[in-house]
Amino acid sequence: MRQHSVPRLAWSIADELLRGITTVVLMPEHGDASEVEYALELAVEQTDRYSDVRRLVLSAGEGAAEGGGSVFSPLRFLLQAFDVTWKDGTGPLTWDNLLAAAELPEVIVAADFTGLNEEQRRQWLQCIAEGSAAAARRREQHPAFCVVAQASDPVLQGLRTSSNLKIRYWCNLHTLTALASEYQLSFLGKRLGEVHWKAALVTSLAGSDRSLVEPLGEAVVRSKEAVVTCLQNAATERGFTLQTLQGEGVHLLLSGSSFQPLDRLNHGHPIVHLWARGFLNYSAEYGWEVPSWVLAALGEVNLLEHRIWRAQLPIVLPIINQFRLMVIRHLMQFYGVEWLLAAAQEHRRLVPAGANDPKPLLCPFDAELSDLRYILEGEASRSHQASQYLSVLRLAHFLRNQLAHYTAIEPAEYFKLLEGVQALGLAD
Protein backbone atom coordinates (compact mmCIF):
# COMPACT_ATOMS: atom_id res chain seq x y z
CA MET A 1 0.00 0.00 0.00
CA ARG A 2 1.46 3.33 -1.01
CA GLN A 3 1.76 6.10 1.54
CA HIS A 4 0.51 9.47 0.32
CA SER A 5 2.27 11.53 2.99
CA VAL A 6 5.51 12.74 1.43
CA PRO A 7 8.55 12.64 3.78
CA ARG A 8 10.42 15.89 4.32
CA LEU A 9 13.51 14.27 2.80
CA ALA A 10 11.62 13.78 -0.48
CA TRP A 11 10.83 17.51 -0.64
CA SER A 12 14.52 18.32 -0.08
CA ILE A 13 15.58 15.97 -2.89
CA ALA A 14 12.86 17.34 -5.18
CA ASP A 15 14.15 20.87 -4.65
CA GLU A 16 17.67 19.79 -5.61
CA LEU A 17 16.43 17.98 -8.72
CA LEU A 18 14.59 21.08 -9.89
CA ARG A 19 17.83 23.03 -9.42
CA GLY A 20 19.53 20.63 -11.80
CA ILE A 21 21.28 18.40 -9.28
CA THR A 22 21.35 14.74 -10.32
CA THR A 23 20.69 12.65 -7.23
CA VAL A 24 21.43 9.02 -6.43
CA VAL A 25 19.14 8.00 -3.58
CA LEU A 26 20.44 5.08 -1.53
CA MET A 27 18.14 2.73 0.34
CA PRO A 28 18.78 -0.40 2.43
CA GLU A 29 18.54 -3.92 1.07
CA HIS A 30 15.05 -5.42 0.89
CA GLY A 31 13.57 -1.93 0.57
CA ASP A 32 10.92 -1.16 -2.04
CA ALA A 33 12.50 1.06 -4.71
CA SER A 34 9.14 1.74 -6.33
CA GLU A 35 7.85 3.28 -3.09
CA VAL A 36 10.86 5.61 -2.95
CA GLU A 37 10.47 6.56 -6.62
CA TYR A 38 6.77 7.21 -6.10
CA ALA A 39 7.41 9.52 -3.14
CA LEU A 40 10.06 11.45 -5.07
CA GLU A 41 7.86 11.84 -8.14
CA LEU A 42 5.02 13.05 -5.95
CA ALA A 43 7.26 15.58 -4.24
CA VAL A 44 8.53 16.98 -7.55
CA GLU A 45 5.05 17.17 -9.05
CA GLN A 46 3.63 18.95 -6.01
CA THR A 47 6.14 21.77 -5.96
CA ASP A 48 4.85 25.27 -6.56
CA ARG A 49 6.49 25.59 -9.96
CA TYR A 50 5.81 23.96 -13.31
CA SER A 51 8.38 21.39 -14.30
CA ASP A 52 8.75 18.77 -17.01
CA VAL A 53 9.15 15.54 -15.03
CA ARG A 54 9.32 12.19 -16.83
CA ARG A 55 9.41 8.69 -15.45
CA LEU A 56 11.77 6.53 -17.49
CA VAL A 57 11.78 2.78 -16.92
CA LEU A 58 15.38 1.77 -17.53
CA SER A 59 16.19 -1.08 -19.85
CA ALA A 60 19.15 -2.88 -21.33
CA GLY A 61 17.28 -4.73 -24.03
CA GLU A 62 16.86 -1.88 -26.49
CA GLY A 63 19.03 0.84 -27.92
CA ALA A 64 21.59 -0.63 -30.28
CA ALA A 65 24.90 1.08 -30.73
CA GLU A 66 25.66 3.30 -33.73
CA GLY A 67 26.21 1.43 -36.95
CA GLY A 68 23.73 -1.31 -36.03
CA GLY A 69 25.98 -2.98 -33.48
CA SER A 70 24.63 -5.15 -30.75
CA VAL A 71 26.28 -3.34 -27.82
CA PHE A 72 23.70 -1.56 -25.66
CA SER A 73 23.89 2.24 -25.64
CA PRO A 74 22.05 4.07 -22.82
CA LEU A 75 22.26 7.30 -24.85
CA ARG A 76 20.53 5.71 -27.83
CA PHE A 77 17.91 4.37 -25.46
CA LEU A 78 17.31 7.96 -24.30
CA LEU A 79 16.89 9.06 -27.93
CA GLN A 80 14.20 6.45 -28.48
CA ALA A 81 12.49 7.09 -25.13
CA PHE A 82 12.13 10.84 -25.74
CA ASP A 83 11.55 10.67 -29.53
CA VAL A 84 14.72 12.54 -30.41
CA THR A 85 15.71 12.32 -34.09
CA TRP A 86 19.46 12.14 -34.57
CA LYS A 87 20.09 13.95 -37.87
CA ASP A 88 23.02 13.29 -40.19
CA GLY A 89 25.83 15.72 -39.58
CA THR A 90 25.03 16.13 -35.89
CA GLY A 91 28.17 14.23 -35.01
CA PRO A 92 28.78 11.22 -32.81
CA LEU A 93 26.22 10.42 -30.15
CA THR A 94 27.75 11.96 -27.04
CA TRP A 95 26.24 13.79 -24.12
CA ASP A 96 27.61 17.13 -25.32
CA ASN A 97 26.09 16.67 -28.77
CA LEU A 98 22.83 15.37 -27.32
CA LEU A 99 22.43 18.37 -25.03
CA ALA A 100 23.17 20.71 -27.95
CA ALA A 101 20.73 19.00 -30.31
CA ALA A 102 17.72 18.14 -28.17
CA GLU A 103 15.59 19.44 -25.35
CA LEU A 104 15.33 16.77 -22.69
CA PRO A 105 12.98 16.84 -19.67
CA GLU A 106 14.03 18.88 -16.66
CA VAL A 107 13.85 15.88 -14.32
CA ILE A 108 14.11 12.22 -15.31
CA VAL A 109 13.16 9.69 -12.64
CA ALA A 110 15.10 6.62 -13.72
CA ALA A 111 12.83 3.81 -12.57
CA ASP A 112 13.63 0.12 -12.01
CA PHE A 113 17.36 0.66 -11.66
CA THR A 114 17.51 -2.04 -8.98
CA GLY A 115 15.82 -4.50 -11.35
CA LEU A 116 18.75 -4.50 -13.79
CA ASN A 117 21.74 -6.83 -13.56
CA GLU A 118 25.07 -5.54 -12.26
CA GLU A 119 26.61 -4.72 -15.65
CA GLN A 120 23.46 -2.94 -16.80
CA ARG A 121 23.37 -0.88 -13.61
CA ARG A 122 27.02 0.00 -14.12
CA GLN A 123 26.35 1.21 -17.67
CA TRP A 124 23.40 3.34 -16.66
CA LEU A 125 25.17 4.86 -13.67
CA GLN A 126 28.17 5.76 -15.81
CA CYS A 127 25.88 7.27 -18.44
CA ILE A 128 24.03 9.38 -15.86
CA ALA A 129 27.28 10.56 -14.26
CA GLU A 130 28.66 11.55 -17.67
CA GLY A 131 25.43 13.41 -18.42
CA SER A 132 25.74 15.35 -15.19
CA ALA A 133 29.34 16.26 -16.03
CA ALA A 134 28.39 17.32 -19.56
CA ALA A 135 25.62 19.57 -18.26
CA ALA A 136 28.09 21.18 -15.87
CA ARG A 137 30.57 21.80 -18.70
CA ARG A 138 27.85 23.44 -20.79
CA ARG A 139 26.57 25.34 -17.74
CA GLU A 140 23.15 23.86 -18.21
CA GLN A 141 20.89 22.87 -15.34
CA HIS A 142 18.96 20.07 -16.98
CA PRO A 143 18.32 17.24 -17.30
CA ALA A 144 18.68 16.12 -13.71
CA PHE A 145 18.38 12.38 -13.09
CA CYS A 146 17.00 10.73 -9.99
CA VAL A 147 18.16 7.14 -9.44
CA VAL A 148 17.15 4.91 -6.53
CA ALA A 149 19.78 2.28 -5.72
CA GLN A 150 20.64 -0.12 -2.94
CA ALA A 151 23.38 1.30 -0.72
CA SER A 152 25.28 -2.00 -0.84
CA ASP A 153 25.38 -2.07 -4.66
CA PRO A 154 29.02 -2.60 -5.78
CA VAL A 155 28.51 -0.41 -8.89
CA LEU A 156 28.45 2.63 -6.58
CA GLN A 157 32.11 2.18 -5.68
CA GLY A 158 34.12 4.93 -7.26
CA LEU A 159 31.11 7.17 -7.97
CA ARG A 160 32.32 10.72 -7.57
CA THR A 161 29.97 13.39 -6.32
CA SER A 162 30.14 17.00 -7.48
CA SER A 163 28.21 20.24 -7.20
CA ASN A 164 25.53 18.83 -9.50
CA LEU A 165 25.68 15.12 -8.59
CA LYS A 166 24.82 14.14 -5.04
CA ILE A 167 24.20 11.02 -3.00
CA ARG A 168 21.31 11.06 -0.52
CA TYR A 169 20.37 8.40 2.02
CA TRP A 170 16.73 7.34 2.26
CA CYS A 171 16.46 7.25 6.05
CA ASN A 172 15.17 9.34 8.97
CA LEU A 173 11.93 9.83 7.04
CA HIS A 174 9.44 10.12 9.90
CA THR A 175 9.56 10.80 13.61
CA LEU A 176 8.05 8.10 15.80
CA THR A 177 5.54 10.69 17.00
CA ALA A 178 4.28 11.18 13.44
CA LEU A 179 4.15 7.43 12.84
CA ALA A 180 2.11 6.88 16.00
CA SER A 181 -0.46 9.39 14.77
CA GLU A 182 -0.59 7.63 11.41
CA TYR A 183 -0.95 4.18 12.94
CA GLN A 184 -3.77 5.31 15.24
CA LEU A 185 -5.88 5.90 12.15
CA SER A 186 -5.35 2.33 10.95
CA PHE A 187 -6.23 0.51 14.18
CA LEU A 188 -9.58 -0.54 15.58
CA GLY A 189 -10.29 -1.39 19.21
CA LYS A 190 -13.26 -2.58 21.22
CA ARG A 191 -11.79 -1.84 24.66
CA LEU A 192 -11.14 1.51 26.28
CA GLY A 193 -7.68 2.77 25.30
CA GLU A 194 -6.96 -0.11 22.92
CA VAL A 195 -6.20 2.00 19.83
CA HIS A 196 -3.86 4.26 21.78
CA TRP A 197 -2.08 1.24 23.27
CA LYS A 198 -1.67 -0.44 19.91
CA ALA A 199 -0.34 2.66 18.16
CA ALA A 200 2.21 3.43 20.88
CA LEU A 201 3.63 -0.09 21.21
CA VAL A 202 3.63 -0.86 17.49
CA THR A 203 5.43 2.42 16.77
CA SER A 204 8.14 1.64 19.32
CA LEU A 205 8.61 -1.91 18.02
CA ALA A 206 8.10 -1.54 14.25
CA GLY A 207 9.12 2.05 13.55
CA SER A 208 8.48 2.72 9.87
CA ASP A 209 8.45 -1.00 8.94
CA ARG A 210 4.82 -1.10 7.87
CA SER A 211 4.91 -4.83 7.12
CA LEU A 212 5.01 -5.40 10.89
CA VAL A 213 2.14 -3.08 11.79
CA GLU A 214 -0.75 -5.50 11.32
CA PRO A 215 0.76 -8.60 13.02
CA LEU A 216 2.15 -6.53 15.90
CA GLY A 217 -1.19 -4.78 16.30
CA GLU A 218 -2.69 -8.13 17.22
CA ALA A 219 0.24 -9.28 19.37
CA VAL A 220 0.61 -6.20 21.60
CA VAL A 221 -2.89 -6.64 23.07
CA ARG A 222 -2.27 -10.30 23.93
CA SER A 223 0.99 -10.47 25.89
CA LYS A 224 4.68 -9.65 25.90
CA GLU A 225 5.38 -13.25 24.95
CA ALA A 226 3.10 -12.91 21.92
CA VAL A 227 5.11 -9.88 20.80
CA VAL A 228 8.39 -11.81 20.94
CA THR A 229 6.86 -14.72 19.00
CA CYS A 230 5.46 -12.36 16.36
CA LEU A 231 8.86 -10.75 15.80
CA GLN A 232 10.66 -14.12 15.72
CA ASN A 233 8.23 -15.23 13.00
CA ALA A 234 8.99 -12.06 11.06
CA ALA A 235 12.72 -12.82 11.17
CA THR A 236 12.10 -16.37 9.96
CA GLU A 237 9.91 -15.14 7.09
CA ARG A 238 12.71 -12.81 6.02
CA GLY A 239 15.17 -15.69 5.94
CA PHE A 240 17.29 -14.79 8.97
CA THR A 241 18.25 -16.95 11.90
CA LEU A 242 20.40 -16.50 14.99
CA GLN A 243 23.37 -18.00 13.15
CA THR A 244 23.09 -15.80 10.04
CA LEU A 245 22.64 -12.63 12.07
CA GLN A 246 25.58 -13.31 14.38
CA GLY A 247 27.91 -13.03 11.40
CA GLU A 248 26.62 -9.60 10.41
CA GLY A 249 28.21 -7.68 13.28
CA VAL A 250 24.86 -6.51 14.66
CA HIS A 251 26.11 -7.10 18.21
CA LEU A 252 28.36 -4.04 17.85
CA LEU A 253 25.36 -1.73 18.11
CA LEU A 254 23.06 -3.58 20.48
CA SER A 255 23.95 -1.25 23.34
CA GLY A 256 24.74 2.43 23.44
CA SER A 257 23.25 5.09 21.22
CA SER A 258 24.33 7.14 18.23
CA PHE A 259 22.70 9.97 16.34
CA GLN A 260 25.37 10.38 13.66
CA PRO A 261 23.92 11.08 10.17
CA LEU A 262 24.99 8.71 7.41
CA ASP A 263 26.39 11.42 5.18
CA ARG A 264 29.01 12.24 7.84
CA LEU A 265 30.28 8.67 8.13
CA ASN A 266 32.77 6.80 5.98
CA HIS A 267 31.31 4.24 3.60
CA GLY A 268 32.97 1.44 5.58
CA HIS A 269 31.62 2.55 8.95
CA PRO A 270 29.66 -0.21 10.79
CA ILE A 271 26.57 2.02 10.96
CA VAL A 272 26.58 2.55 7.19
CA HIS A 273 27.14 -1.16 6.54
CA LEU A 274 24.41 -2.35 8.90
CA TRP A 275 21.92 0.23 7.66
CA ALA A 276 22.62 -0.77 4.05
CA ARG A 277 22.01 -4.41 4.96
CA GLY A 278 18.71 -3.49 6.61
CA PHE A 279 19.88 -4.16 10.17
CA LEU A 280 19.64 -0.59 11.51
CA ASN A 281 16.83 1.94 11.72
CA TYR A 282 16.99 5.61 12.62
CA SER A 283 14.55 7.81 14.50
CA ALA A 284 14.89 11.35 15.75
CA GLU A 285 13.78 10.18 19.19
CA TYR A 286 16.25 7.31 19.75
CA GLY A 287 18.89 7.54 17.01
CA TRP A 288 20.24 4.32 15.48
CA GLU A 289 18.63 1.10 16.67
CA VAL A 290 18.69 -2.54 15.64
CA PRO A 291 15.20 -3.51 14.35
CA SER A 292 12.99 -5.34 16.82
CA TRP A 293 12.70 -8.43 14.60
CA VAL A 294 16.51 -8.74 14.66
CA LEU A 295 16.52 -8.50 18.46
CA ALA A 296 13.90 -11.26 18.59
CA ALA A 297 15.96 -13.52 16.32
CA LEU A 298 19.03 -12.90 18.49
CA GLY A 299 17.09 -13.76 21.64
CA GLU A 300 17.57 -10.25 23.09
CA VAL A 301 14.34 -10.35 25.09
CA ASN A 302 15.52 -7.71 27.60
CA LEU A 303 16.08 -5.17 24.83
CA LEU A 304 12.68 -5.98 23.36
CA GLU A 305 11.06 -5.48 26.74
CA HIS A 306 12.78 -2.11 26.98
CA ARG A 307 11.06 -1.02 23.75
CA ILE A 308 7.72 -2.19 25.10
CA TRP A 309 8.40 -0.42 28.41
CA ARG A 310 9.34 2.92 26.86
CA ALA A 311 6.11 2.93 24.87
CA GLN A 312 4.04 2.15 27.97
CA LEU A 313 5.40 4.98 30.13
CA PRO A 314 3.59 7.92 28.45
CA ILE A 315 0.37 5.89 28.28
CA VAL A 316 0.14 4.33 31.72
CA LEU A 317 1.82 6.82 34.07
CA PRO A 318 -0.53 9.75 33.25
CA ILE A 319 -3.53 7.51 34.00
CA ILE A 320 -1.99 6.46 37.31
CA ASN A 321 -1.15 10.03 38.26
CA GLN A 322 -4.63 11.22 37.29
CA PHE A 323 -6.08 8.58 39.55
CA ARG A 324 -3.71 9.55 42.38
CA LEU A 325 -4.85 13.18 42.17
CA MET A 326 -8.50 12.14 42.12
CA VAL A 327 -8.07 10.03 45.25
CA ILE A 328 -6.39 12.97 46.99
CA ARG A 329 -9.28 15.25 46.07
CA HIS A 330 -11.76 12.69 47.32
CA LEU A 331 -10.00 12.43 50.69
CA MET A 332 -9.66 16.20 50.98
CA GLN A 333 -13.36 16.64 50.26
CA PHE A 334 -14.53 14.13 52.85
CA TYR A 335 -11.87 14.46 55.56
CA GLY A 336 -10.14 17.80 55.01
CA VAL A 337 -6.60 18.87 54.17
CA GLU A 338 -5.23 18.72 57.71
CA TRP A 339 -6.51 15.18 58.25
CA LEU A 340 -4.99 13.99 54.97
CA LEU A 341 -1.61 15.54 55.74
CA ALA A 342 -1.59 14.02 59.22
CA ALA A 343 -2.58 10.57 57.99
CA ALA A 344 0.05 10.59 55.24
CA GLN A 345 2.70 11.82 57.66
CA GLU A 346 1.79 9.02 60.07
CA HIS A 347 2.44 6.51 57.28
CA ARG A 348 5.80 8.06 56.54
CA ARG A 349 6.86 7.80 60.16
CA LEU A 350 6.16 4.06 59.98
CA VAL A 351 8.51 3.59 57.01
CA PRO A 352 11.81 2.02 58.18
CA ALA A 353 14.75 4.39 58.15
CA GLY A 354 17.03 3.99 55.15
CA ALA A 355 18.61 5.65 52.18
CA ASN A 356 15.20 6.68 50.84
CA ASP A 357 13.83 8.38 53.93
CA PRO A 358 10.57 10.12 53.01
CA LYS A 359 10.53 13.89 53.12
CA PRO A 360 8.02 15.80 55.26
CA LEU A 361 4.72 16.25 53.43
CA LEU A 362 3.91 19.95 53.01
CA CYS A 363 1.25 19.76 50.29
CA PRO A 364 -1.57 17.18 50.12
CA PHE A 365 -1.05 16.78 46.35
CA ASP A 366 2.46 15.49 47.05
CA ALA A 367 1.04 12.34 48.68
CA GLU A 368 2.46 9.21 47.09
CA LEU A 369 0.50 6.13 46.08
CA SER A 370 1.96 4.31 49.07
CA ASP A 371 0.62 7.04 51.39
CA LEU A 372 -2.82 6.82 49.85
CA ARG A 373 -2.83 3.03 49.99
CA TYR A 374 -2.05 3.14 53.72
CA ILE A 375 -4.86 5.62 54.31
CA LEU A 376 -7.43 3.75 52.24
CA GLU A 377 -6.56 0.41 53.85
CA GLY A 378 -7.41 2.01 57.18
CA GLU A 379 -10.65 3.50 55.86
CA ALA A 380 -11.83 0.53 53.76
CA SER A 381 -13.59 -1.15 56.68
CA ARG A 382 -15.54 2.03 57.45
CA SER A 383 -16.32 3.24 53.90
CA HIS A 384 -17.59 1.30 50.88
CA GLN A 385 -16.29 4.04 48.55
CA ALA A 386 -12.84 3.83 50.13
CA SER A 387 -12.92 0.08 49.51
CA GLN A 388 -13.69 0.68 45.80
CA TYR A 389 -10.86 3.16 45.47
CA LEU A 390 -8.49 0.80 47.28
CA SER A 391 -8.86 -2.08 44.80
CA VAL A 392 -7.91 0.16 41.89
CA LEU A 393 -5.20 1.92 43.88
CA ARG A 394 -3.47 -1.35 44.72
CA LEU A 395 -3.26 -2.19 41.01
CA ALA A 396 -2.09 1.34 40.13
CA HIS A 397 0.57 1.16 42.85
CA PHE A 398 1.81 -2.21 41.58
CA LEU A 399 1.96 -1.05 37.94
CA ARG A 400 3.72 2.18 38.89
CA ASN A 401 6.38 0.20 40.76
CA GLN A 402 6.82 -2.16 37.82
CA LEU A 403 7.36 0.72 35.40
CA ALA A 404 9.58 2.61 37.84
CA HIS A 405 11.84 -0.44 37.96
CA TYR A 406 12.07 -0.68 34.15
CA THR A 407 9.69 -3.63 33.84
CA ALA A 408 7.05 -3.63 31.12
CA ILE A 409 3.53 -4.51 32.19
CA GLU A 410 1.14 -6.91 30.50
CA PRO A 411 -1.68 -5.53 28.32
CA ALA A 412 -4.32 -7.22 30.50
CA GLU A 413 -3.06 -5.21 33.50
CA TYR A 414 -3.36 -1.94 31.59
CA PHE A 415 -6.90 -2.65 30.44
CA LYS A 416 -7.90 -3.72 33.96
CA LEU A 417 -6.57 -0.41 35.30
CA LEU A 418 -8.51 1.57 32.73
CA GLU A 419 -11.70 -0.37 33.45
CA GLY A 420 -11.29 0.26 37.17
CA VAL A 421 -10.69 3.98 36.71
CA GLN A 422 -13.60 4.17 34.28
CA ALA A 423 -15.91 2.45 36.77
CA LEU A 424 -15.09 5.14 39.33
CA GLY A 425 -15.94 7.82 36.79
CA LEU A 426 -12.41 9.12 36.42
CA ALA A 427 -11.69 8.24 32.78
CA ASP A 428 -13.03 9.87 29.66
| Unreliable residue stretches | 63-69
What's the architecture of the largest domain in CATH terms? 3-Layer(aba) Sandwich
Query: Can you tell me the CATH class of the largest domain?
Result: Alpha Beta
The major β-sheet equals:
5 strands, parallel
Number of strands: 7
Protein model, in words:
The protein is of the alpha/beta class and 428 residues long. It folds into three domains: 8-169, Rossmann fold, CATH 3.40.50; 176-299, no CATH class; 314-423. Helix content is 50%, strand content 8%. The protein is built from 17 helices and seven strands. The chain has helices spanning 8-18, 33-45, 74-81, 95-101, 118-137, 176-184, 194-206, 213-219, 224-237, 242-246, 270-277, 292-298, 301-335, 337-350, 369-379, 384-404, 411-423, and strands spanning 22-27, 53-57, 107-111, 144-150, 165-169, 281-283, 287-289. The strands form two sheets. A five-stranded parallel beta sheet has the order 2-3-4-1-5. It has a two-stranded antiparallel sheet with strand order 6-7. Helix 5 links the parallel strand 3 and strand 4 (144-150). It is elongated and about 105 Å long. The two termini are 34 Å apart. Residues 63-69 have low confidence and may be disordered.
